[in-house]
Amino acid sequence: MVCPRQKTRRLVMPSQILLSLPLRAAQRISVHGDPEGKVLGAKRSMRRIVLFLTALALFSAAAIAQQSAPAPTAPANPEFLKAADEVLADVSKLISLPVKSPLKKTVRTREEIREFILREVHEEREAAKWYADQRALETFGLIPRGFDLQKFVVDLLTEQVAGLYDPKSKEFYIADWIPIFEQRMVMSHELVHALQDQHFDIKPWSEAARPNDDAELARHSVLEGAAIVGMLEYILREQKISVKDLPDIEQFMRAQMTGQMDKDSQLGKSPAYIRNSLLFPYLAGTAFAQRLLKTGGSWEKFYEVFAKPPLSTHQIMHPDLYLSGESLPPVSLAPAVKAVPAGWKKLDENTLGEFGVHALLKEFLGEARAQRLSPAWAGDSYAVFEQLKTKRVLLLFRLRVAADADAARFFGAYSEALETKYATRAHLFRRPNFFSFETAQGGVFLYCRNDECFTVEGASRQVFDRITRAMRWPAAPRPADTKPAEKIAIVPQAPSASGNASLSAP
Predict the structure, then answer these.
(1) CA 296 to CA 292: how far, in whole Å?
(2) What is the rounded (10 degree) CA torsion for 43, 189, 280, 46?
(3) Is the separation of the CB atoms in 400 and 452 below 8 Å?
(4) Which domains does the chain have, with CATH numbers?
(5) Is the pTM of the predicted complex or chain greater than 0.85?
C-alpha cells in the first residue's frame, strides 16, 4: 500500500538512505544443541552484543536514488578509510561476496547528508505521489487526517541517518559525527549493500517488482534482512558464531528496537503504522534471511533468492511458503475501476499484501486478532479515487483469503473495524455476508462471497451496485423497507486498538 510506496503506498522513499538506530542490546539469547559450548559459554548464553539496526524508508522501501551523492567538502579521514577497508574485507569473507571493484568512501557532515536527503525526497517523488499516499493512508485510517506526511518523513530521515550507500554513484559515505567504533557497525551493514550491488545490481533488481508495492517491499526486505544478518555475522565473528547457529532472533530484535523507538523524539511521535512499516524490512527481512541461511546452509545458496525473489510480503512473513514455491494468482480490480463514474480521479491502485492487511487489522482490532486473521491472505488489490469538485475520497478494496471460512471470519472482524473507524454513521444494515451504513463522507459497504471480501467506502448505494455488477457479483442484500432519510447520528466510539482516536470522522 503506501509506506511504506514500506508506499502504506509505500511512500517511495530512497532505499539507500539508511536510518541507523543504535540499539544497545544487553539481552542474553540461549542457544540449544551446542555440545562443544562454542555458542553458550559457561552459562549457555551469549555475551552482550551491540546491535545497530537500520530502519529504512516506509513502503516502497526499495526505490533507489536518482541523484549522485553530494560532493565532499573535505578529504576523507584516513582513520575512516582504513576502518572501511578493514570492515569491507571482513564482511566480504563472512558473506561470501568477493569485492569486484574499488569502492568510493567518504565522510559527510550532517548538513551535507540533510541536503542530499531533501533533494532525493523532492526529486524521486512527485508532489502528486505524496498527495496520493497521503490520501490513501488517511482513507484506510492509518494516519490522522491532516498529518503532514512529507514533512514527517523528511524530519525522520534527517534525524536518524548515520550512513548510506548510493548505488547510483557507487559510493559509501557515513556521518562525520559518529564515533569510529560505532562507524564500524554502520559500515558492516552498508557495505553488505555495496557488495550486493556489485554482484546483483540492486537498483534494477528492486525496481523489477514495480508497480506491485507489496512485491517491491518483499524485495527490499531481502536486501535489508541480508544486510542485518551480515552485520550480525561481523559483530559475532570473533566469537566464531554464525547467525545460522542462533535461534530465531526476530523477537529479540523487535523488543530492542521497539524500546529504542519509544524513546526517540521523531519515531515516538509517528503513527503506529509508520513505525511498523519502517521496521518491517529489518525485522521480517532478518527472519526470512536467517531461515533461508539455515535451510540452505550457506550464503552461496542464499543468493539464489536474487534469481527467484519472493513474490509478496506473505512469503517474507512465512518463509516456508517461499521455499515451497507458492504462487498465488493476482486479484483484479479492473472491472470495478472501470465502473467508477466520471468525475472521480484515480489517485492510486496497488496491493496491500499480508503486511498491509495485518497493519490495517492491528490498527483497529489489536495485534492478537491481526495475527490470527492476516495469515489467511491470498491476494488483494485496492484503488483510491478523489472527486474532482468536492475532494471526497472513494476507496475500493478487494481481498482474497485462503478459504470461505476465512472470509466469514474476516467479515465479522472487519465489520467491527469499520464501525470503530467511523464515529458518525447511520442506517446500519447487516446480513451474514453484507454490512453497510452511511457517513458524512458517503456510504460504507462490506460484501463477502466465497473466499473474497470487497469493501467500498465513500460511495452511494447506486455506485456500489454499479461496481459489483461490473465485477459480476450477485446483487447485495437490501433492506426490506426504505425508510425516509434521517440525520446522521453520533454513535459512541471506542478508541482504535492502536490507541488513536477516530481517523475517519469529519
Answers:
(1) 6
(2) 0
(3) yes
(4) 17-323 (no CATH), 334-470 (3.40.1000.70)
(5) no
My answer on whether omega of the bond before 54 falls inside 30° of 0, hence cis, is no
How many other CB atoms are there within 10 angstroms of residue 50's CB atom? Answer: 13
Amino acid at 38: K
3-state per-residue secondary structure call for 234-267: HHHHHHCCCHHHCCCCHHHHHHHHHHHHHHCHHH
Count of Cβ atoms closer than 10 Å to residue 103 Cβ: 18
> Which residue bears the cell 497521503?
134
Q: Using alpha carbons, list the distances in angstroms from residue 191 to 126, 221, 236, 341.
A: 30, 17, 16, 51
- Pure H helices in 264-366: 265-269, 272-296, 299-302, 313-317, 319-323, 334-339, 353-365
List Cα–Cα distances, 425 to 422, 436, 439, 490, in angstroms.
Answer: 7, 10, 5, 7
Asked whether 223 and 193 are in contact (CB, 8 A), the reply is yes
In sequence order, which residues have a C-beta less than 8 Å from that of residue 359 and are 6 or more positions away? 8, 142, 273, 276, 277, 370
Helix (H) or strand (E) holding 108: strand 104-108
Cell numbers given for 169: 554513484
Q: Are 431 and 477 in contact (CB under 8 A)?
A: yes
CA distance 496 to 499: 5
* Phi, psi (degrees; rounded to nearest 5) at 341: -60, 160
Rounded average pLDDT per 10-residue block, the chain, 506 residues: 38 29 29 39 32 32 33 62 92 98 85 78 74 90 88 73 77 78 86 96 94 94 96 93 89 72 66 87 96 97 98 98 96 98 95 97 97 98 95 97 98 98 94 97 97 98 98 94 42 46 34
The set of cell numbers assigned to 340 is 467508477
Distance CA 384, CA 329 (A): 22
Phi, psi at residue 389, to the nearest 5°? -80, -45
Chain centroid to CA 444: how far?
A: 27
CB atoms within 10 A of CB 334: 12
Cβ-contact 432, 449 below 8 angstroms: no
How many Å apart are CA 165 and CA 171, to the nearest integer?
6
> What is residue 198's three-state secondary structure?
helix
Question: Which one, of 23, 27, 62, 79, lies nearest residue 231 by Cα?
Answer: 23
Is residue 211 reached through a cis peptide bond, with omega within 30 degrees of 0 on the bond before it?
yes
Compute, in degrees rounded to 10, the torsion defined by CA atoms 93, 97, 101, 103: -70
